[in-house]
Every structure is written in C-alpha cells, then in structure tokens.
Amino acid sequence: MRQNLPRETLLEMYRRMRRIRAFEDCAEEIHRNGEVPGTCHTSQGQEGEIVGACMALRVDDYMVGNHRSHGHPIGKGAKLDGLMAELMARKTGVCQGKGGSMHLADFSVGSLGETSIVGSGIPVAAGAALGAKMRGTDRVSLCFFGDGASNEGTFHEGINIASNWKLPVIFLCENNGYAISTPIGTTAQVENIADRAAAYAIPGVVVDGQDVLAVHEVVGEAVRRARAGEGPTLVEAKTYRFLDHAANLGRDLRYRTDEEVAEWRSKRDPIALFDARVTGEMGVKPAELRQIDEEVASELAGALDFARSSPFPDPAEAFADVYGDRLAVDA
Questions:
Q1: Which listed site, 34, 189, 249, 296, has its alpha carbon 20 to 30 Å from 60?
Q2: How many helices (H) and strands (E) does the chain have?
Q3: CA–CA dist 219, 174 (Å, integer)
Q4: Angle between helices 7-32 and 270-281 (to 10 degrees)
Q5: Cα dihedral 268, 206, 40, 81 sign
Q6: Of 69, 66, 83, 196, nearest to 144 (Cα)?
Q7: CA gyration radius for the chain?
Q8: DSSP labels, 246-278
Q9: Exposed e or buried b for every residue in 204-236, given b needs 16+ CB within 10 A?
Q10: How far apart, in whole angstroms, are the C-alpha atoms of residue 77 and residue 110?
Q11: Which domains does the chain carry?
Q12: CA distance 124 to 157
C-alpha cells in the first residue's frame, strides 16, 4: 500500500531532486572549464532512486555511495557549499579539498563516504551496520552501488556476511543498464540483480528507480525490517543516467543510441514524472514547485561563489589525517 506522505515530505523530495540536477549540471560545466580536477561522474536521471531511498532514512542513519557520488550526500541532506568546494579542491570542502569528486563524505548527515573502487562500499556499509548492532543502536546502513559492482566479489562477500549476522543494512543496486559502456545483459545472466538475494536467504525487490515514491516505499520497508532486527534487503532500482559514464570524456563510445537516451529523457525523467504527479494528484500547486526551483538556483549560485572564493589547502596538509607520520617515514 502506497504511503500517504505529508505535504512537507513531498516538497522536500522535489527540492532534493532539483538540488541534485542543478548541482550535476553545474559540475559538468565547471569540469569542462577546468575548475574540477580529475574525473567527474554525474547522475542526471537517477535522482528518483537516490532521493526516494535517502529520505526513507533518519539523519543519523549511515549512507555509503560510489564513484557517481554527488547525488548521494545531497539526497541525504548535505549542504551544497562544502560539496562544491570539495569538487574544486578547496580547503572548505567536506574533505578539506583532498577527496574530490569521487570521495565525498559528510558525517553530519551520516554520509560515510563515496569511493572510486567499484564495489568497495559494500563491506563498508556492512561494517557500519555491524557497528550499530554491536552498540545496541537502531541505526541502519544504506549502500548504493551500480550494476557493474554486483559482479564484484565484495558484493557477494558483503551480502553473505550481512545475511549470516542479520545486519541492519539495505543494499541498493542502481541498475542504470551499463557498466561504463558494457550492457548488463552481457555480464549477468539473471533477469534482475535482485534475484541474487535468494542465494543469501534475504528479500530481493525490484523497483522503478524513476518513481521516487515507489523507491521510498520499498526502501522504507527494508529500513523497517533492518531496525526490527530482521536483517538486510537487496533492492534493485531500475534507472538510467542521461549523460555518459563520466563528464567530458572527449570521445564517443557509441554504446547506446541517441534515440534511447532521448526516450528516457522525454518520458522517464524522474523529476518531470514527480512534478506531474504531485501537481495532478496530490494537491501541490505548480507555483510551489517553481518557488523551490528559484530557491535551489540561488542556493547553487551561493555554493559556487563560496567554493570559488575559498582557499586551496596548504601543500603541507597533504600529510595530515593519514596513518603514517611524515617525520618517521622520512627518517
């Protein structure tokens, strides 16, 4: 049964999806202009599954992401200033300018970090869940990973141990159809990644990742199970990224047609679908959403100004917050 969500929740869902889209569009542009060092992976088109899942959590719940990393902390409620500054390698960034686009973390909203190593966030999320269980709290852990990561050993190891120990963790596969340029159908012979849950005796659920409300409902049930001590759930959100694997690659791999991308953009945009639904069925006025659009644009402009006016870290800070002692190593 679909939940009857409060009006404030619906508006916050829209706000967070709009934040992600605006941030990602901006990230692509400033990366093209040379203001973002390294690679930059964006998630336009995947906002529904990100926000739907994150808003099923509490602020103090844990969240672990992947290399397509900007949307996850935004979906969890992180402010844009520190995220934008981190992309631009500034001292005021959430990781003091040393993490960059693929390694964002914001502990203030439970975001434990993103990682560029495919599948490596899965055992991290299981570990966070184990820690919560050992401390006797009811915190849960949400892990985002792609369809490509479902073929990594960490996927099977992490889910297996979570199942055996009934850890409070939700494994969410963002199946956007392609691992870089490789179609999922050529690397997995199961129809759904969620079908693999049976091997670990846990629930496996497929959901339309473009429907933020459907994702919220499915992940909400997984969160309920986790808090109740019933163990993990594997959720597969069928979604799609509108842009290439990474921004401004400079080459066309031609692994999907222009018609396919246009079809998803025109008919399956999660923000447009949600806009039409809440204004058509749920009593939200279009003017309310347009007001949010303006507020998000202003928020993004402020974040960009904040990042550009922030200093770079001092080179000596490269040796701070590391395991080894620089002096001991030099000696």
A1: 296
A2: 11, 8
A3: 13
A4: 160
A5: positive
A6: 66
A7: 20
A8: STT-SS----S-HHHHHHHHHH--HHHHHHHHH
A9: bbbbbbbbbbbbbbbbbbbbebbbeeebbbbbb
A10: 9
A11: 7-318 (3.40.50.970)
A12: 11
Burial group, residue 29, by CB count within 10 angstroms (0-12, 13-18, 19+): middle
Q: How many CB atoms lie within 10 A of CB 263?
A: 12
Amino acid at 99: G
Dist CA 131 CA 327 (whole Å): 33
- Three-class secondary structure of residue 44 per DSSP: coil
- Positive or negative, the CA dihedral 9, 12, 14, 16 is negative
How far is residue 58's CA from residue 224's CA, in Å, rounded to a whole number?
A: 12
Contact (CB, 8 A) for 68 and 288: no
Q: Measured between alpha carbons, how far is 290 from 253 in angstroms, rounded to an integer?
A: 37
Give the bridge partners for 183, in sequence order: 178
**CA-based angle 319:320:323, to the nearest 5?**
85
CA distance 123 to 136: 20
Q: Residue 158 is inside which H or E element, if any?
A: helix 153-164
Q: Which residue spans within the chain are E strands per DSSP?
A: 62-64, 111-113, 141-146, 169-175, 178-179, 182-183, 204-208, 233-238
